[in-house]
Amino acid sequence: MRAGDVIALTEVYDTYAPFLFDYCHGLLRDRVEAAGALRNTLIMAREHVDRLGEPERLRGWLYALARKECMRRRESPNRHTGQEAPEAGDGELSEEQHARREERRALALSTLAALSGRQREAIDLAARHELDAVDLAGLFGVPPDEAARLLDETDEDLAIALNAALIAQNHWEDCPSVSALTESWPLTTQSARTLTRHVANCAICGSRDTPPLPADRLLAVLPIAAIPNDLRLDVLTAATAADRADNRHAIAAYAEPFTARGWPVPYESGSPRSRERAAPKKRKGGLLVAVGGAAAAIALAAVGMTVIGGSGDESSAVVAPESPTAAGDPSGSGTQGPPPISDSPSASPSASKSPSKSPSPSKTPTTRRPTSEPPRDDDDDRPRPPRPQDPGRLQIGGCDMGRGDSCTITITAVGGPVSWRVTGASDGLRARGSGRLGSGQSTGVRVSRPDGSCWLINQEGSVSISPGGAAQVEYC
């Protein structure tokens, strides 16, 4: 790739594209967006491959580029939505195999629902995409020891959540509280976390033995988005055609800036730059002028990333390569492709409710894949002026207090002065404050958690601030 060898690029596509496409589909929940994100990722990789000083880290580096591109696309209010990709190999199962898979899938979704968005994304990347702590450190923009801790804590919390989900699946009739909590199956995030807390303190549930299950086996039943067959030619053409060089330069700029290690700095959700449609940057000294965000943001609760994977519309829609309406696409070559993950600044996955469980002892789960439709993006290669902004808009960032007692939400006035105030908080969180900010000014709002609220899994809540909306808060 460093030598510009087209064959090398095709080998990279054939080796990594199906997995990268599935990851992008999980974050974007739309096959057109996922196809565009994959194409841009490989263009960025080819243009910036000289930055990667550790060839053995190519896989993780590609995922870091893909995540940054997906987070950029999620910011756009105009991005393509509603066309999820078909599931790979979905038509190859017998009716009995399909029913068994759906039962196991419901268990997996109910288990994952108890985790935080970042944990869901981390375990998916580790178990299904084979990334290690060093890769995750580069992808999330954190030190390697922090990424290792995240994986260790996620493994522990996953085992606890799986134990609770297995009790709910197999022993729900033994405990009235569990029966009441599992009226819908798979479980919602709130039900899964309440169930986990209940099981930890219930004598009846605590006496039940459940089999351990490795994360890779638990997640193996989740859907894998099928990569479009005709995407390969489109991507390779967009990445190599001489008449698309300017578009490639513009796309490559989305990956910047990079760290000293040569990894893309994670996309900063909600940054003013992310809302402006700037013209492609000119080359300077052989390198593109840096554009884009600077810090890692993962709300999977945006990031909501959605609970991993997704299937959907079985039809195939292809956007013409030169269409100026292809979302988030300077080259205009968006093609069909599946869309979270995650936490999310991802994204924050949420499982959709399925029909109420039957009171029969067999309790066969019914599954409907969680849906989350993050915003979309419609960049093309034409310069355009910044999108007009309403004066006095409030930009709100979330916070994560971990197992501490408090954290600080940052709010910033954009486009003019803003009078603000805290109007409420969910899940027992406490926050208050009000004031006035001049344009561009920022301040912090301290949020504290309920006393005695830290269990063994992450919890989430929100603080409402007027005007502007709500800030996501993770704790424990």
Task: Please describe what this structure looks like.
The chain is an alpha+beta fold and 476 residues long. It contains 14 helices and 13 strands. It is globular, with a radius of gyration of 22 Å. The model is unreliable at 271-390 (pLDDT under 50). The strands form four sheets. The chain has a five-stranded mixed beta sheet, with no helix packed on it. Strands 5-7-11-9 form a four-stranded antiparallel beta sheet, with no helix packed on it. Strands 1-2 form a two-stranded antiparallel ribbon. Helix content is 36%, strand content 12%. Helix 1 crosses helix 2. The longest helix is centred in the N-terminal third of the chain and has 27 residues, at 144-170. It folds into two domains: 1-388, no CATH class; 393-475, Immunoglobulins (Immunoglobulin-like, Sandwich), CATH 2.60.40.10.
Question: What key attributes describe this structure?
Answer:
2 domains; four-stranded antiparallel beta sheet; globular; 36% helix; alpha+beta; 476 residues; Immunoglobulin-like; five-stranded mixed beta sheet; 14 helices
